[in-house]
Specification:
The chain is an alpha/beta fold and 186 residues long. It has one domain: P-loop containing nucleotide triphosphate hydrolases (Rossmann fold), CATH 3.40.50.300. 42% of the residues lie in helices and 23% in strands. The chain is built from seven helices and nine strands, in the order βαβββαββαβαβααβα. The strands form two sheets. A five-stranded parallel β-sheet has the order 2-7-1-8-9, sandwiched between helices. It has a four-stranded mixed β-sheet with strand order 4-3-6-5. Helix 1 crosses helix 7 and helix 5 runs antiparallel to helix 6. The radius of gyration is 16 Å and the shape is globular. The model has no long low-confidence stretch (mean pLDDT 93). Bound molecules: guanosine-5'-monophosphate. Guanosine-5'-monophosphate binds next to strand 5 and strand 6.
């Protein structure tokens, strides 16, 4: 990527672990951070806004951008495509923002290969039981999807040591403080 002013931060963790909530807490205290908006082929959840939470696209649209080499990384997760559009990330870095890529592990490994020194953070649940409780209490997924995501979470946890930092999201404020310190320290 071209001359970067901001930092690129890989930011992963199992579905339901509270990555979004931790990020919101970080952004409140450090207005220089931005979340990259991914393209996805999954259907919007209630309350999700196109262009804000994701760009919701068709599989054909997604594949068109693959052909144009327009993704920094992309992966399939629970039957859908997810990918980070290159241009958007470059523009935000050039504007001086620290850009968080909230992505699953397969995509994260692709980015680590391209940028071995990249700052990477994996958010860990206090336990798998607690993760299941959080996924269920969100109430946005059916049973089959919840089970699929839990299975996926267990697999993803095996990659946590590939990240420079692991942050346990038990107490929210502590997790926010830790992420703030990590980006400040780098
Ligand atoms: P969800 O469907 O819960 O929004 O996201 C499912 C998983 O896909 C999460 O782990 C999320 O971080 C990841 N994800 C979101 N956007 C991207 C992306 O652009 N690329 C990759 N590889 N994963 C993504």
């Amino acid at each position: 990527m071209s001359s970067k002013k901001g930092k690129l931060v890989l930011y992963s963790g199992a579905s339901g672990v509270g990555k979004g909530t931790v990020f919101s807490g970080v952004k409140e205290r450090n207005p220089n951070v931005r979340l990259s908006v991914s393209n996805t082929t999954r259907a919007p959840r209630e309350g999700e806004i196109d262009g804000v939470h994701y760009n919701f696209v068709t599989p054909e649209e997604f594949e068109r951008l693959i052909d144009l080499d327009g993704y920094l990384e992309y992966a399939r997760y629970c039957g859908n495509y997810y990918g980070t559009p290159k241009k958007q990330v470059e523009d935000m870095l050039d504007a001086g923002f620290d850009v968080f890529l909230e992505i699953e592990v397969k995509g994260a490994l692709q980015v680590m290969e391209k940028y071995p020194d990249i700052l990477s953070i994996f958010i860990v649940p206090p336990s798998l039981g607690e993760l299941e409780r959080r996924l269920r209490s969100r109430g946005t997924e059916d049973e089959e999807t919840i089970l699929k995501r839990l299975e996926q979470a267990k697999e993803e946890m095996e990659y946590k040591d590939r990240y420079k930092f692991n942050v346990v999201n038990d107490d929210l404020q502590t997790a926010v403080d830790e992420v703030l310190n990590i980006i400040k320290g780098e």
